[in-house]
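Q: For a teaching session next week I want to show students how multiple molecules come together into a single three-dimensional assembly. I've collected the sequence lines for a complex. Could you give me the predicted structure tokens for the whole thing so I can convert them for display?
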Amino acid sequence: MKAARIILVYLAAALAAAVCGVLFGAARIPLSEFVQDGALNPIVELRIVRTAAAAVVGASLAVSGLVFQAVLRNSLAEPYLLGVSGGAGLGAAGAIILGFSAWGFMSVPLFALLGAVAANLLVFAAVRRRSAEELLLGGVMIGTLASSMLMVLITFSHSRDMAGVVWWMLGSMQNVDPARQLAPAAVLLCAATVYLLFRAGDVDLLTFGPEYAWNHGVNARLMTVVLLALASLLAAVTVSMAGIIGFCGLVVPHIVRRLHGGSHRRILIPAALAGAVFLMLADILGRVVSPVRELPVGMVTAAVGCPVFLWLLNRSRAGS
Amino acid sequence: MHRLFRAIFLPLALCLVCCSGERKSAPGGVVSLSPALTELVCHLGQGDRLIARSTACDWPETVKTLPAAGNFAEPELERILAMKPALVVSNEFVNPKDADALRQAGIAVELHSCDGFGDYREWVARMGRLLDCPREAEAELERTDARIAEFEAALENSPGKPLRALYVIWDSPLLTAGADSLPDAVGRLAGLENIVKTEKGYPSISLEFVLREDPDVVIWFAHGKDWKSNPSWSGIRAIRQGHVLVPRDDSALLRPGPRIFDGIADLKADLGTMFLSGPSAEVAAP
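A: Of course. Below is the structure for the complete assembly, covering every listed component.
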């Protein structure tokens, strides 16, 4: 299938998921009540924001995962490597438990972003040679350290704070601020996608190893650092917006690569759109299955993503 | 003979005095790890028997001078064992095995949840027996029944439907009080109807559910959190209209203790002020 046709198929799926995201939820609203007294129904408004947030978060995680897997040449690489999830979780938990959340609605996301970026910088500073393997190990170490510190904070926390931290760890689209969080994240996603499209050839070369890329005229070390920093920033921004959502960044790039090959120019936009579709559908499922309590989206992505991924893995093995 | 007396009997006598002194201090020594039970012990006139409290116990003011022997429902075992109390009371323990450890050391441990007025009555009767103050307990039971009957009579005589309320325990995630919770029971006596009917306990609920249920008033228990800073909240009609009520003293309403009826009376009065003076009449904490 031609690249343009592939993109059109994914775009259609994303549009369908977005429409479903606005139509379905905890409440049943007839189409006639979407607009009331000349203003958009607040429930519909809420759904539009969270559907858009799911799309941006899903796409960002998928793009981030695609880059991590390519640059680190590791099929288990995911957006939360290099300490992003541990740092963000520690930042958010610290803000909640130490009382900084009282400073305002944006304080917890800001602390999460700071934690993620700090953990990321620590990994880059600690690992001097910056080879892919060493960065990977450094990320795992810093992530483990941050997780241990997070556990210490949780141990000393109040039960209400603990609920906030747990909610943060499972992810949710409920409290995304459209102006202060969603818009900057969307701009970052677009800029990253455009940059990666221009550098898709270099990413392809890096998947064969830094020496191979170097021999073909790519500054492999610099490119590795730039790409990992960009992928980490995408993940950190999504974590600050919606908490830690696993599986999307790991599974979606795998599936798209299996379906459409390894050329990053060809699969970048399909991966982003597939990530958006995956998270929009997970968010809808979380809202519809449990209308009052609402399932955390991170739980849904794991529950749905894991069996789908295993099925695809077994199917492709049987085929080969 | 005199030397023999001094060498044998004097130390023995001293030892007996010391031991008996230690035994004397044990009975009556009570450790409360629940703020509501601390209030109840003091209300029954037995406050002088408290030897330690939890870090959450802050009322009446006099208990703040007592040493802390743990957090709410989290005993510090070594500290309590060193205090040698006769009785430890709490609604529950985070780690149930802590109760076994205390009982093995010969300390009586009384644990019982307290989620409504029935549980409160049960605790009053139990405390009357445990602290040997049946008359005070009986008086408190009579007062409890009288206050509940008074609120119920007022409800029967009030015209119109009860106000539909959302109880916000925490804003992010949105933790609320479910159908069988204490705030639900308290709110019912104050003339409120909880919008959460199917979920029990303190569930985390979706904002879409709140928008669908469209509460008339939001009772804000999320102390120290500001609903105005979260744009997602602006979709709720009660928030837009300023029908957000911060209880004067949320501890009086969230603790199943003797002050709860005063808390309900204050809540009723504040609701009356808010809905008589019209929209945007926000009642703020003093």
